[in-house]
Every structure is written in C-alpha cells, then in structure tokens.
Give the backbone structure.
Amino acid sequence: MQYNPCMLGSVISGVSAAAVVTAGYQSMAPTAQWYGQTFTGLPHSSRQIALTYDDGPNDPHTLRLLEVLARHGVRATFFLIGRYVQQHPEIVHEIIQAGHVVGNHTSTHPLLTFKNEIAIRQELSECRSALQDAIGEHSSLFRPPFGGRRPAVLRIARELGMSPVMWNVTGYDWNAPPAPEIERKITKQIRGGDVILLHDGGHKHMGADRSQTLIATDHLIARYKPEGYKFVTIPQMMGKTDSFTP
Ligand SMILES: [Zn+2]
C-alpha cells in the first residue's frame, strides 16, 4: 500500500491542510520524533553502522545474504514478517545461528497508522508468537511496516516489551533497482552512527528478488570497513550487551 497524505484528510476534519500534511509527514518520516521516541541511530561522531533488513525471511535470498555477511564477519538485524516466519522457521533458525538479531515487523505487514488498537496489538502479538514458535524466544525490537506509526503503535509495542526501531539511511531498494543505484543512495546519506534500511524480502510475496541488495551489501561493507567503520547489530548500537534480547 502506498502512503498518501490525503488519506489523513478524510479522517481529520477541522484542521488546516498544512497541519494534516505535517501530521502525515511525522507519522511516516523515519527520523521524526513527534509521535513518540524511536531509535534511529547514534550521533554522527560514531563509527558504528547498523545494517537492517526488512520483510524476510525470504526464500532463497535471506540465506544468500547470510553468506555475504558471514564472508565479511558482519552481524546485522532482521525485521521479520510473522506469516513468513511461520512458512520458513528454518531460515529464522539460520539467522539466529549466525549470530544476527531478529525483530518484530508485524504478522501481515499492514500500515498501522489507521488501524485500531485491537488490530495493532493482534499484528504485533501474532508476529511475536510466530517468533516464539520458531526459535523459542520473541524479539524486543519492533519496526512498523512502511515506518507508519502513531502514539498508540509505539505504546502497544512498548507494552509488549519491544523498543521501536526506525532508521536514518534509506536504501530505496523496494523495487530492486540495480546495486550501484542502491549503493549511491546509501553512501550519500552515511555520516556515522547510521541505521541503514534494506530489504532481504518483499512484503507482497515470498521469493522477492533481492540479489541487487545482496551485491550492494557486499560492496558497502567492503567500502566502509577499511575506513574504520564497525558494523553492529541494533542492540549493540543501543549499548545493550545481550545480542538477542536487548
Ligand atoms: Zn517492511
């Protein structure tokens, strides 16, 4: 579903168009904090970078990505869709076995901005149960689909024991552009202390081709590691020592 600021207009009446646009921006912009605090990275003086991958587990691209990361000795954070976790728990096992961190990305990947609280809670709880069934633990990290949020989304995530995690560098790899394009967009945004949004899966269907994201990942690590950047998981970046449950 594509986000359209005009959708808010039909919900909110009696406020100015500018306020509606601002409200829409604040509910979707990855680093905006108006609707509640979310983790978006560290100050730019940091030499840490966190690679994050959304919309998996995805057969076969997640396992191929694990190979790329293993080659570089890098650990990343995966925000998983619950219904895919149920389909491929063995891939989630592999992610954990390799020392990466998993996060909750809802059960079916809806835009939560306009969902009622019961539906929000259900989406988060179902993904949590899927993770529990697959690996015996749930995650304490949550990322809203499309970055869409409002105070209720963040509050419910916290009530379920999860910290909301956004990002500050966007890979724009949704539609699988060529790897050099993904790399160019990311390198333009990197300042240090960054949380990079990429995708190892696709929310519309299992099997989305992420080969370009894999190539871009390979090149980005090869470029930034020699410059002294350290690739870390989100809990590591948050300063939490436990690699799985921050
Ligand atoms: Zn997503």
